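Review box. Two proteins, two foldings.
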Amino acid sequence: ISQDRLSLNLEALTELAEIDGRARRSAATRSALVWAAREVFRSRAYSDVSTAEIVEHAGLTRNALYYHFRSKESLFRAVYEDVEGDVARRILPRAAEAASILDGLRTGVQLFLDACLEPDVAEISVRQAPAVLGFGTMREIDNRNYLGALTEALATGIANGELRDLPAHTVASMLLGALDEAALLIASSKHPRTAR
C-alpha cells in the first residue's frame, strides 16, 4: 500500500467516524426531545403546552427542536409513535409465544387493555391524539404496529382450522376498531380499572 493510499484511507475512516458521531448525537437529541415531550404531554393537554416548555424540559434549544421536527404537531406524532411502539413491542412477542393462535389473541387483548391503564397511553394515545393527529394518522400508525401481525395470526388460525374461515384482514381491522373503542371507554371512565 502506498503512503498516499494509506493517507486517503485514514482520512475516509476519520470522516466516517465524524459522521457516525454526528448521527449518534443527532439521534440522542431527537430521543431527548421525544422523551421530554412525552413527559409534558402526559401531564398537560397539547393546547396548553408550548415548544419552549418542551425544550426547557429536555435541556435543549428551540433550534434543536426545529432541526428534528417541523412543528409541535410533528413532535406530538413522534411521541404518539413512541408510545404506541412501546405498547406493540410489549404485546406482540408475548402474543406470539402463546400455545395457540386463540391464546395469543386473548393474551394480546388482555395486554392491550392493561396498557390502556398506563398514563402515557390513556392521556397521549387515547385522549389527545384524536384531536391532534386525527383518526387517519392514528390508523396509519396503529396499522403499521398491529394490523400486519394481527392479520397474519388470524390467517394462520383460519388455515389451521382453529378459527372460522373469515376474511383475516377485515376481521383484524374490526378487532383493532373494537380495541380502540375499549381504550376510549377505559381512558374516559371515572374508574378505569373497573372499566378495564
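Next protein.
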Amino acid sequence: GNTQIKGAIGFISDDSSVGDYGRGNLIFCVDSVDDNAPVGHADEKMRITHAGKIGMGISTPDTNLHVWKASAGSVSAASDAQLVVENNGVTAINLLSPATSHGQIIFGDPDDNDVGQFGYDHSTNKMYFKVNGSATKVLETISTGTTFKSTGNAYTMYLNTDDNAISDTAKIIFNDRGAVGWNGSSVYLSDDGSNK
C-alpha cells in the first residue's frame, strides 16, 4: 500500500519576535485518520511554547501545563495555577490505585513535605483529611456519614454513621443552645443544650 508520513515534530513561528532572529513554538502532530494523506499542521496534538508552557489539545496554553478536551467558555486559568484541566462538561482528574492502597493529594512546604493531605483509602472505602503533618485523620467520610476528629481523637462527632466505635451518646449543638442527639436509646431535640 501507499506510505504516508503520519507523525511529525515541527517548529512554527508565532510572529512574537521583535528582533531579526525569530522565535516560536515546538509542535507535535499525529494524524489520527487512516487515509492516504500525510500529517499536517491541523493534526497538532501538543505544543511547547517559547514561554515553556505545554498545551495538550490547545495551542495557547494558559499556564505551565494545560490539558484541553473542549472549551469551558470565556474563562482563563487562575494566575496561581500551574496545572489546568479543561472541558465543556464534567472535568475530572482520575487517581487510580490498587484496591488495598490509597489515592492522595499531598500538600508540602520547606518545613514538611506532607504537612497536609486528603485521600481515599480503598481498603476501608473512606475519604479522609490530614492537617499539620499529623497522622491523625481530622475528617473521615464513608457512605453512611462523616466523622470529625480532633488531634488524638479526644473529641469526635459522628453524623449518620454505623461505625462500631460510636459512643453510647452523641450530640450536635448549635450555638450552645439547641441540640439534636442520641442518648443511647432514642433521638432527641433540645432548645437549651440539655438531653431532652
